Amino acid sequence: MLGQLTGANVGLIYPSLLPPSLSKTKSKLSPISSMSMSQDPVHEWILSEGQATKITKIRPVGGGCINLASRYDTDAGSFFVKTNRSIGPSMFEAEALGLEAMYETGTIRVPKPHKVGPLPTGGSFIVMEFIEFGASRGNQSALGRKLGEMHKAGKSNKGYGFDVNNTIGSTPQINTWSSDWIQFYGECRLGYQLKLALDQYGDKTIYEKGQRLVKSMGPLFDNVVIEPCLLHGDLWSGNISSDKNGEPVILDPACYYGHSEAEFGMSWCAGFGGSFYNSYFEVIPKQPGFEERRDLYMLYHYLNHYNLFGSGYRSSSMSIIDDYLAILKA
Q1: What residues contact residue 329 under an 8 Å CB cut-off, 6+ apart?
Q2: For a disulfide at 254, which of 5, 137, 234, 321, Cβ 3.0-4.6 Å?
Q3: What's the CATH architecture for 140-328?
Q4: Given a cut of 90, is residue 1 above it in pLDDT?
Q5: 15-129 maps to which CATH number?
Q6: How far is the C-alpha of 195 from the C-alpha of 92, rounded, in Å?
Q7: Is 163 one of the catalytic residues?
Q8: Given 163, 203, 234, 252, the catalytic residue
Q9: How many whole angstroms from its chain centre is CA 155?
Q10: Does pTM top 0.90 for this prediction?
Q11: Residue closest to 179 by CA, chosen among 230, 228, 213
């Protein structure tokens, strides 16, 4: 949300939950000692497990405001590296889990994570695949189809949630597993943001009305089959690109397993067009009431923008809440 290439996904992480391709890498989660390892663990990994014999060039990559991003060119190819000098490895470990989950679906292209670790002087880093972006954001139809394929392939038998908490922008995103989507969305998504607005701004009006909506929104899901599917979670224009072949690429996720329609909550700044939705619904058929639920999923992101950036987003949030309370007669 906050950066095209360098957005942070801060969250809780548990070593046992890392995918094998990440957890088996040497010193993946163990602290890096300045006495036993190089002062630059990024160089060390690239020149060992990265299978390079020399780093030929390092150049900064712009686009974000949370982390420092760089491209490392080597004789074994290029790597994309993000570092943060103030936040520990949990931030990038959560991002790596999301990237790995999407990568393993074998559908839409995402940068494959290679290595996560702490920096000896404080902070953390992540090394991932470098993807050469094309000149445009790519084909909308292909993006819709590939995203639908990811939703169809990425399933969970644990219900709704994710193995770790992460963030949406820099706001904590609570991913505690639940078997009930309406409860999960009401508590872990809308409820969390409403409480944050109350604590941060003392906004009792939006909190109380929002809680009325949470308690009464059940009918919006009548006759809807909801299966937990893997969501990118923060799909806006800054997190969408294309590779040099024109194939869609998505990055900087805030992943969790949820209702597929929740993926479109950032559509107000994603630029999805008719060809995108037509292709998506060929893979994941549109459910009854899709249009009526769209603003409900946008509300989460409007509330988050309110909490992150201030009162400029309050009126949009309040308008959505009031409209639903009128429709639901709550």
Answers
A1: none
A2: 234
A3: Alpha-Beta Complex (3.90)
A4: no
A5: 3.30.200.20
A6: 26
A7: no
A8: 234
A9: 16
A10: no
A11: 228
